[in-house]
Amino acid sequence: MTMTKADALPLSSPLRTRLRALAPLSGAEMQALAAAERDQRRWPARREMIAEGAPITQARAIVSGWACRQRILPDGRRQILDFLLPGDLIGVSPLSNPLAPATILAVTEVVTCALPAAAAGMPGLSHAYTVSAALTELYTLAQVTRLGRLSAQERLADWLLETRDRLALAGQTVGDNLPVPLTQELLADALGLTSVHVNRTLQSMRRDGLLAGRSGMFLLADRQRLEILAGYRSARVTADTEP
Hints:
The chain is α+β, with helices and mostly antiparallel strands.
């Protein structure tokens, strides 16, 4: 891993875009996030970022890149529990000395920054962190449902729709085009399938006009049909208060 100082940052970023979408943030809170992003840590692709059971000494956020949480069985089989996307938070816990519940692996090159504490006078950050944790719980429940009850095509459709929503929250999509820098092996380990099964399912969905695109970029060619196929429901953690 390497440490860098980012001298110039864009006016917005996946982290600031995502947290601002989760809760209203004051100018001071946005400045605190921007300042935190200037002190970055880089992780090469396929580098272990933290091992299962290791102490989490600092909450961090993903500035760019994709990582995954995984568990490896004694015989070498892997289950990817979820993917960590730009703007996602790592290690936020109410415990005083939390341990990593799973190994975190950099899928691509990953850039992280320390997450600023939600100090007094920063209620927006505190609320955004709470909403982010609630969303993570919903994504975990969705993963359990995918693996337990959905067919291969339904699993892939549901995961792509969820990933599209998550990336859109951080400003990382253009319409229904979304970057997915994953091999079919990684998708297979996340969806409880074989690489061959993933390949055949993708081909079938392309033939049916549901998906398009290759080389790390997917187009949800018919999002409405995908939602019907998977019975997809967008994650919501607060009640609608509109009349």
